[in-house]
C-alpha cells in the first residue's frame, strides 16, 4: 500500500483528466464552424440588389446607400451618452430602451441600434464612431424608387423578422428582405449573395487582422436585374384615372399573359416605405382599415363579377349544345318561373338571340341558358359540376398561379357547394339562378376577370398572367410560357365575341367607342351590401367593365372594377376604354371623356357608410365634382397621384 | 536487473530524458502559439516571448550538463547547505524582492527576473531526503515527524507570506514522501477524512456533515470487531470531526479572501442566486470559462499548430504561462491533450519506478519527492485549466513560459537522473 499509493493516484488522476478531455472535446463539442466561432468577427458586405425595369426598359427601382448604427451590447464600454444621443438625434430614454432591447435579443450578436441614417448624419457620426466601443456602422443598400407609381406591384423591403432568420440562416438581424410585391416574389433573384469577411478578434474584441489572410472571405455577388411586364406609362395613366376611386384595373396581353398594368386604388407612393420613416408610414397605411391602401384590389378583392360573367354562360351553353346562337328568348322585364319572377331585367327589345342577349345584357336570356345547362343532366348536382368545370377552365374559382405574393381564389360554386348549403337533392336550378348573371355565389377578382376575357379574346386559351418579363441571365419559369386550354371549342367563341363587339356598337357601351379600334367588351353592375351596426345595408352598385381589343388578335385584355361606381359604363367602361386607347394608340383623342373621369370623385360615396347618417344610393345620388386631377411630372417622385387624400376625415 | 542497468549509455535513464525533451519542445511550440504577435518571422526572435523561451531552453541544456557532471555524492553532502541558501533567498525577497501581480516573489536583475520559490522546491526535496536518510530518523515517532514537517513548513510559510498561495500548496505533496517512508496509516485516514469533511462542510453545511460523520463513526464502532475504538474514543473522534467541519466553514467565511471564496464557491457550485452567480462568473471565472471554451473548441484533432482562433485572439489570459494547456487543447485537440497527459503520467511513473529501485535511501526519498512535486503541479494545473479544480496559480512543469520555472524543474529532475545513474557505484 505504501509503495503504490502515489502510483495509484497518478493513474486515477490521469484517467480522470482524459475522460474530462473526452467530455469537453469530443462529447460536448459540435462540429467546428467558422461562423459559430466567437473569436472571429464576421463582417458582411451587402451586394447590389437587382434593379427593376418596366417592359420598355424604363428604370423603376434602383438603390441608395444607407447606414445603420449597429450594437453589440456585450462590447459596449461606458460612453458619453449625451454626445452619442445628440449625434444620433435620439433621447436618453430612447437610448436606454434600444440598448435594453438589443441586450435582450442577444448580448453578443449585433442588432441594429439606429437604422438607416441619412448621409449627413452618417458623415458627422463616422468621425466620432471610434469613441463608442460596441457600436459600428453597417452599410446597406436601400431601395430608391425612380417613380411614384406601382407601389402594389413593386412592393417594398423591410427588416427581416426573427422567424425568417430561424428558418433561413442566410439572413441576420437588421437585414432587409422583400415584404410585398415583386420584392417578395423575386427576393431570391434580386437579393444576390452577401460577401463575408472573417476578422480575427482578440479578447478585448479588437480586430487584429483578417483571419488567415482572408482565405475564406467571399465577395458579394450582386442581385440580378429584372424587367417586369408592366408598361409604366399605362400603369401611371391607370393610377391617374383611379384617383379618388376605389377599385382595380388589370390589363393583360392575351398573346402571352403579361400583365401590362395592375392598378389598385387607393395606392401610395412607394418611396413612403423607404428609410427611417418606413415603420411609421407602414403603420399608418396598415391601420387604415377603411380605404385599405395595402390591399391590392386588382388581386385580392373578390367581387361578384356581374354581367361580364354572362358570356361564360353563353359559351358553356354552346359547348354543351343546349342552345344555338340563333335561338330566341323572350324577356318580359325579367325571367319568370311559372308566375314567379326570379330575376328582373332592364328595358330592351324582345325577344333576343345570343348576339343581342350579350349586347343588351339581357338577364332572362342568360338565366334560360344557365338553367338549360344545369338541367341538361338528370342529376342537378352533376349538371352544376359540369357547369363549374367549364367556368373553372377560364382560371376562375381558384388561384391563378401568377408571380405576385397575394391573391384570392374567387368562387365558382359546384354541386357539392349547394349540397352543403341546402342538403343533397334539396335544391334545383331555380334556387341558384343568380349565378347566371354573375351575382349570387359567383365571385372573382379583377385579375381573374381580365384573364377570362383574355381567354375569350384568344378564342379558347390563355397564358398564366405574370409580372416577370426578363431575368438577367436566366429565363422566366416555363409555367408562364405554357398555353392553358379552356374546355370550350374554338368555333363557339365567334358568336360570343360578336356579341361583345356589339356591346360597343348597339349595346350598353355604345357611347364608349374608340375610332379605329374594334373593341369587344361587356358591362357589369353588381349589387353589394355592407353591415352597418349589424344592419345589412345596400350600397351603390359596383361599376364593372371587361374588354379586349382589337377584336382579332387582341393586344390587350382588361378588367376594371370601380367600387360603388354605379352602372358599368359609367366609370369602369370609360376607364377601360381610355386605357385601351392609351395602350394601343399612345394618345387620348377623347379628352372630354378623360376630363369627366378626372373631375369626378367617389370619395363622398365612400364616406357615406361611416358618416353615421342615413344616405341614399345609386340613382338617388349626385356625383361629386372636383377640380381636375393633374398628372404628376415624371421626375416628381415625392408626390403620388394616387396617395390617399383626406384620410383624416375618414 | 543489474546487467540491464549496465547497458545504459553513460548510466543515465534515457527514458526520462526523452520524456523531458518531448515535454520541453512541445511546450515551446505551444508557447509560440500562445504568445506570438503577428506573423512568425524567426523562431528565435528575441522580441517575442517564444524567442526568449528558446533561450531559456538552450540554457537548460548547459544546466543539465553541469548537474550531470557534478559527482552524485555532492547533492547528498551539500543538501543542507543548498536548503539554507534557498531559504535565505526566500527571506531576502522581503527586503530586495519585486512585486509582480501582488506577489512579492521575484528578484529583479536588470531586465531579468528570478523567482526563488521555483528553486526552493528541489532544495526542500534534497533536505527532506537528507533528513529521512539519516539513520537516526524514525518517521514513526512524533518528534521526527514534526522535524520533517518543519522542513517543508519553512519554505511553505515564507512563500505564503509573499502572497503566492499557489506555490505553497505544492509542499503538501511531501505527504506522499512521508507516507512512503513510514508515516502511520492513521495519517492517511485522517488526510482523506479531512478532505471529505471539508468538502462536505462547504457543500452541505455543518449539520448534514455532522450527521454523516456520526453515521460513519458509529457504523465503524458497531461493525468492526477487531481493533475497534472504544465508545468514548468514538465520541471524541466525532467531536473532532464536527469541530473540524465548523473550523473549515469559519476559515472559508472569515479567513479566505473574497476571490478565494468565489473560486471555491464556483467549484462546489455553492451559489444559488443566478444574478450573483453571473457576476461571480464574470469576475472570477473569466479565465476558466475562456480556457474551457478554448479546449472544447479543439474537438477531436484540434485546429492545428498556430491555427487556434482563441489562442491567436488571446482570449485566455496568461495562456503562455499557467493556462498553456488550453493551447494544447485548442490546437492539438483531444489527441494532443491526451498525449501530453500520457507524457506526464509516464514521466512520473518512471521516476517512481526508478525511485523504488534505488539502493540508497537518500536517492529513493529524493526520487519520491520529485515524483510528488511533479504530480501535484500536473494535477493542479491541468485540473484547473479543465475546470475540475478551483483556480490555483501554479505552472505546468516544462511547459509553461518562464526561465525560473523551467530551470527549477530541470534541476529537480536531473539531480535525480544523476543520483539514479550513480546507484551502480554504491555498494
From TrEMBL, chain B:
Membrane topology reported for the UniProt record: Multi-pass membrane protein
Main location: membrane
NCBIfam families the record matches: RodA_shape (NF037961)
Keyword presence, Transmembrane: yes
Species: Psychroserpens burtonensis
Name of protein: Rod shape-determining protein RodA
Pfam families, A to Z: FTSW_RODA_SPOVE
Keywords: Cell shape, Membrane, Transmembrane, Transmembrane helix
Compartments (UniProt record): Membrane
Chain ranges passing through the membrane: 12-29, 49-68, 80-97, 150-179, 185-218, 230-252, 332-353, 365-386, 398-417
BP term (GO), one: regulation of cell shape
Entry GO CC: cell division site; plasma membrane
InterPro entries linked: FtsW/RodA (IPR001182)
GO molecular function terms noted in the UniProt entry: lipid-linked peptidoglycan transporter activity
Amino acid at each position: 500500500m505504501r509503495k503504490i499509493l502515489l502510483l495509484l493516484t497518478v493513474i486515477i488522476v490521469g484517467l480522470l483528466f482524459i475522460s474530462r478531455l473526452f467530455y469537453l472535446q469530443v462529447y460536448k463539442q459540435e462540429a467546428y464552424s467558422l461562423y459559430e466561432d466567437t473569436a472571429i468577427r464576421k463582417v458582411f458586405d451587402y451586394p447590389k440588389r437587382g434593379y427593376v425595369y418596366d417592359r420598355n426598359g424604363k428604370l423603376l427601382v434602383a438603390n441608395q446607400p444607407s447606414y445603420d448604427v449597429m450594437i453589440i451590447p456585450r462590447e459596449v464600454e461606458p460612453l458619453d451618452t449625451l454626445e452619442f444621443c445628440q449625434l444620433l438625434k435620439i433621447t436618453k430614454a430612447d437610448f436606454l430602451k434600444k440598448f435594453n432591447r438589443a441586450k435582450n435579443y442577444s448580448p453578443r450578436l449585433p442588432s441594429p441600434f439606429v437604422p438607416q441614417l441619412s448621409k449627413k448624419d452618417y458623415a458627422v457620426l463616422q468621425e466620432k464612431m471610434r469613441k463608442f466601443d460596441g457600436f459600428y456602422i453597417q452599410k446597406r443598400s436601400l431601395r430608391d424608387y425612380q417613380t411614384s407609381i406601382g407601389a402594389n406591384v413593386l412592393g417594398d423591403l423591410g427588416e427581416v423578422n426573427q422567424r425568417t432568420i430561424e428558418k433561413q440562416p442566410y439572413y441576420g438581424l437588421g437585414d432587409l428582405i422583400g415584404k410585398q410585391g415583386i420584392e417578395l416574389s423575386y427576393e431570391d433573384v434580386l437579393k444576390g449573395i452577401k460577401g463575408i469577411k472573417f476578422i480575427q478578434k482578440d479578447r478585448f474584441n479588437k480586430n487584429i487582422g483578417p483571419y488567415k489572410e482572408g482565405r475564406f472571405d467571399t465577395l458579394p455577388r450582386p442581385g440580378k436585374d429584372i424587367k417586369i411586364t408592366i408598361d409604366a406609362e399605362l400603369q401611371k395613366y391607370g393610377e391617374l384615372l383611379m384617383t379618388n376611386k376605389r377599385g382595380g384595373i388589370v390589363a393583360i396581353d392575351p398573346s402571352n399573359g403579361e400583365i401590362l398594368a395592375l392598378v389598385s386604388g387607393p395606392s401610395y407612393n412607394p418611396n413612403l416605405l423607404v428609410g427611417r420613416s418606413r415603420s411609421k408610414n407602414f403603420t399608418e397605411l396598415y391601420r387604415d382599415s377603411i380605404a385599405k391602401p395595402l390591399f391590392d384590389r386588382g388581386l385580392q378583392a373578390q367581387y361578384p363579377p356581374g354581367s361580364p360573367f354572362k358570356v361564360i354562360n353563353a359559351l358553356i351553353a354552346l359547348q354543351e349544345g343546349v342552345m344555338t346562337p340563333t335561338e330566341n328568348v323572350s324577356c318580359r322585364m325579367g325571367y319568370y318561373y311559372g308566375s314567379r319572377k326570379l330575376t328582373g331585367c332592364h328595358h330592351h327589345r324582345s325577344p333576343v338571340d345570343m348576339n343581342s342577349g350579350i349586347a343588351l345584357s339581357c338577364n332572362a336570356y342568360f338565366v334560360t341558358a344557365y338553367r338549360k345547362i344545369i338541367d341538361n343532366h338528370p342529376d342537378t348536382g352533376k349538371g352544376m359540376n359540369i357547369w363549374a368545370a367549364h367556368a373553372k377552365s377560364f382560371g376562375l374559382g381558384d388561384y391563378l398561379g401568377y408571380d405576385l405574393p397575394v391573391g384570392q381564389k374567387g368562387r365558382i360554386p359546384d354541386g357539392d357547394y349547394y349540397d352543403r348549403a341546402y342538403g343533397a337533392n334539396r335544391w334545383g336550378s331555380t334556387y341558384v339562378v343568380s349565378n347566371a348573371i354573375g351575382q349570387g355565389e359567383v365571385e372573382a377578382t379583377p385579375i381573374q376577370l381580365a384573364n377570362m376575357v383574355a381567354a375569350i379574346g384568344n378564342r379558347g386559351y390563355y397564358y398564366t398572367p405574370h409580372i416577370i418579363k426578363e431575368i438577367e441571365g436566366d429565363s422566366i419559369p416555363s409555367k408562364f410560357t405554357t398555353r392553358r386550354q379552356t374546355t370550350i371549342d374554338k368555333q363557339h367563341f365567334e358568336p360570343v365575341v360578336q356579341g361583345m363587339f356589339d356591346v360597343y356598337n348597339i349595346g350598353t357601351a355604345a357611347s364608349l367607342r374608340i375610332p379605329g379600334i374594334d373593341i369587344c367588351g361587356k358591362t357589369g353592375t353588381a349589387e353589394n351590401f355592407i353591415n352597418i351596426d349589424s344592419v345589412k345595408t345596400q350600397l351603390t352598385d359596383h361599376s364593372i367593365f371587361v374588354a379586349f381589343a382589337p377584336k382579332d388578335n387582341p393586344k390587350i385584355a382588361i378588367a376594371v372594377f370601380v367600387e360603388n361606381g354605379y352602372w358599368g359604363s359609367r366609370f369602369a367602361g370609360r376607364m377601360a376604354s381610355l386605357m385601351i386607347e392609351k395602350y394601343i394608340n399612345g394618345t387620348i383623342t377623347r379628352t372630354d371623356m378623360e376630363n369627366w373621369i378626372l373631375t369626378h370623385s367617389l370619395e363622398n360615396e365612400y364616406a357615406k357608410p361611416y358618416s353615421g347618417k342615413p344616405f341614399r344610393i345609386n340613382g338617388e345620388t349626385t356625383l361629386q365634382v372636383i377640380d381636375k386631377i393633374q398628372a404628376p411630372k415624371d421626375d416628381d417622385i415625392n408626390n403620388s397621384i394616387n396617395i390617399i387624400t383626406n384620410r383624416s376625415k375618414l | 536487473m543489474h546487467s540491464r542497468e549496465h547497458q545504459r549509455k553513460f548510466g543515465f535513464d534515457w527514458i526520462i530524458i526523452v520524456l523531458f525533451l518531448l515535454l520541453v519542445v512541445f511546450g515551446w511550440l505551444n508557447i509560440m502559439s500562445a504568445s506570438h504577435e503577428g506573423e512568425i518571422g524567426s523562431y528565435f526572435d528575441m522580441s517575442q516571448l517564444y524567442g526568449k523561451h528558446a533561450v531559456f531552453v538552450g540554457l537548460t541544456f548547459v544546466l543539465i550538463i553541469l548537474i550531470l557532471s557534478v559527482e552524485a555524492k555532492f547533492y547528498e553532502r551539500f543538501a543542507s547547505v543548498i536548503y539554507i541558501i534557498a531559504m535565505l533567498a526566500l527571506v531576502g525577497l522581503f527586503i530586495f524582492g519585486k512585486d509582480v501581480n501582488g506577489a512579492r516573489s521575484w528578484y529583479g536583475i536588470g531586465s531579468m527576473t528570478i523567482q526563488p520559490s521555483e528553486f526552493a522546491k528541489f532544495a526542500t526535496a534534497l533536505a527532506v531526503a537528507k533528513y529521512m536518510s539519516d539513520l537516526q530518523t524514525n518517521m514513526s515517532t512524533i518528534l521526527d515527524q514534526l522535524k520533517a514537517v518543519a522542513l517543508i513548513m519553512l519554505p511553505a510559510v515564507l512563500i505564503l507570506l509573499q502572497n503566492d498561495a499557489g506555490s505553497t500548496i505544492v509542499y503538501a505533496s511531501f505527504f506522499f514522501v512521508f507516507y512512503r517512508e513510514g508515516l502511520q496509516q492513521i495519517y492517511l485516514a485522517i488526510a482523506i477524512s479531512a478532505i471529505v469533511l471539508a468538502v462536505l462542510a462547504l457543500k452541505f453545511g455543518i449539520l448534514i456533515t455532522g450527521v454523516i460523520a456520526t453515521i460513519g463513526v458509529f457504523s465503524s464502532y458497531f461493525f468492526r470487531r477487531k481493533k475497534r475504538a472504544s465508545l468514548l474514543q468514538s465520541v471524541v473522534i466525532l467531536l473532532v470531526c464536527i469541530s473540524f467541519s465548523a473550523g473549515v466553514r469559519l476559515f472559508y467565511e472569515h479567513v479566505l479572501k473574497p476571490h478565494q471564496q468565489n473560486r471555491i464557491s464556483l467549484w462546489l457550485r455553492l451559489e444559488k442566486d443566478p444574478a450573483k452567480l453571473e457576476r461571480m462568473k464574470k469576475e472570477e471565472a473569466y479565465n476558466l470559462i475562456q480556457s474551457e471554451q478554448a479546449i472544447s473548441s479543439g474537438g477531436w484533432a484540434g485546429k492545428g499548430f498556430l491555427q487556434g482562433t482563441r489562442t491567436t485572439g488571446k482570449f485566455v489570459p496568461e495562456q503562455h504561462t499557467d493556462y498553456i494547456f488550453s493551447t494544447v487543447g485548442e490546437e492539438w485537440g483531444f489527441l494532443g491533450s491526451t498525449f501530453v497527459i500520457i507524457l506526464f503520467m509516464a514521466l512520473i511513473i518512471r521516476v517512481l519506478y526508478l525511485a523504488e529501485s534505488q539502493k540508497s535511501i537518500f536517492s529513493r526519498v529524493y526520487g519520491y519527492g520529485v515524483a510528488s512535486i511533479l504530480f501535484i503541479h500536473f494535477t493542479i494545473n491541468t485540473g484547473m485549466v479543465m475546470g475540475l479544480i478551483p483556480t490555483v496559480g501554479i505552472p505546468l512543469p516544462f511547459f509553461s513560459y518562464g526561465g525560473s520555472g523551467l530551470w527549477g524543474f530541470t534541476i529537480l529532475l536531473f539531480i535525480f537522473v544523476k543520483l539514479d545513474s550513480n546507484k551502480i557505484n554504491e555498494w
